Amino acid sequence: MTGQTQVNRALFDEVMVPNYAPANIIPVKGAGSRVWDQQGREYIDFAGGIAVSSLGHCHPALVSALKQQADKLWHLSNVMTNEPALRLASALVNATFADKVYFANSGAEANEAAFKLARRYALEKFGAHKDQIISFHKSFHGRTFFTVTVGGQAAYSDGFGPKPGAVLHGEFNNLDSVKALISDNTCAVVLEPIQGEGGIIPATAEFLQGVRDLCNQHNALLIMDEVQTGVGRTGKLYAYMHYGVTPDILTTAKSLGGGFPIGAMLTTDDIASHLKVGTHGSTYGGNPLACAVAEAVLETVNQPEVMAQVLSNEQLCRQQLAAINEKYQVFSEIRGKGMLLGAILNEQYKGRSREFFLAAADQGLMALVAGPDVVRFAPSLVITPEDITAGMQRFEQAVKQVVNA
């Protein structure tokens, strides 16, 4: 790039593949839950980089971890191991059900590893017939061809030729639909404890326990995709901890790196033993820079006072959304847990979530959608009550803008 290049939104259309349609604003600086664009305009961040920026922008602990590691070692590949990866894996094992960890670069890669492991485990333990994966409509597990096929949204997987086979889809929170699909040919059932992209839909306790029981009966593995719900997002380190239902394999990413790309698959000794040397890998997985940052994230987030703050922040958000709704009558309910909330549009406003999202940006608030009927909020876990209140004031103006349009 030469010094003369104008770095603006028009340049995106000129040089970038058009699979995204980003907003016109280009943020250039962030601190905590505030972001500033090229023109110096300030935004309050309720989007968190799609549930990624678990500690906001430029958190001192993360900046320090990155700078310290940057002066030591950036990359080795998996021909050798490294200290940050070993420390992070130990911390994850100590904090969860798991005995073993596999590192990748993203949630999709963690899920890819989980699905491959489930297939390999079933093949070696029970035979080639046991290859079916049961997932759910409206689920989202990534954008690789395997993960997007397992995901329950045909709009993301259609149009790329023949799909990987032996993938079935049930209805989320409907145990009968799982009973109708599961058999001795099922190698795994995969689900999000709270469906994210599908509309912020929490699993019921009965459903989750029922799926666990069915997996046990049919020698199938239960895979929980906690890419969006993990690392404190729901007020527990992982959402499965709210339910008392333990998965066989868990995937985590997004908040784990606080903005630095990293993903991980967690599992037990017995299951992990089936990914023998050479069966799977990643050039960058377990990268020292990523693991050093994620180690600082985990250490900072996995504290009782932070978990308590996530739940008190949730209550504050719910109270203020209820007050907005009393005035404008646009939501039918608020769904979700902790700092992953969805404002569900009522019949009158169905299909218009993008209008609320755009109006929020006009008012200086970064928000998200989860499908056409849900406005999604996934701010920093440690966002201050003051920033929540200021952000909700801006959101109220956005709601007013849409209602009066």
From TrEMBL:
One GO BP annotation of this record: L-arginine biosynthetic process
Cofactor annotation remark: Binds 1 pyridoxal phosphate per subunit.
Presence of keyword Cytoplasm: yes
The entry's keywords: Amino-acid biosynthesis, Aminotransferase, Arginine biosynthesis, Cytoplasm, Pyridoxal phosphate, Transferase
Ligand binding (N(2)-acetyl-L-ornithine): 143, 282
Chief place where the protein resides: cytoplasm
Pathway field: Amino-acid biosynthesis; L-arginine biosynthesis; N(2)-acetyl-L-ornithine from L-glutamate: step 4/4
Cellular location(s): Cytoplasm
EC annotation from Swiss-Prot or TrEMBL: 2.6.1.11
Gene Ontology cellular-component annotations: cytoplasm
GO molecular function: identical protein binding; N2-acetyl-L-ornithine:2-oxoglutarate 5-aminotransferase activity; pyridoxal phosphate binding
The keyword Transferase is annotated on this UniProt entry: yes
Sites of N6-(pyridoxal phosphate)lysine modification: 254
Catalysis: reaction(s): N(2)-acetyl-L-ornithine + 2-oxoglutarate = N-acetyl-L-glutamate 5-semialdehyde + L-glutamate
Alphabetized PANTHER family for the sequence: AMINOTRANSFERASE CLASS III, SUCCINYLORNITHINE TRANSAMINASE
Family as reported in the entry's similarity comment: Belongs to the class-III pyridoxal-phosphate-dependent aminotransferase family. ArgD subfamily.
Entry protein name: Acetylornithine aminotransferase
Organism name: Rheinheimera pacifica
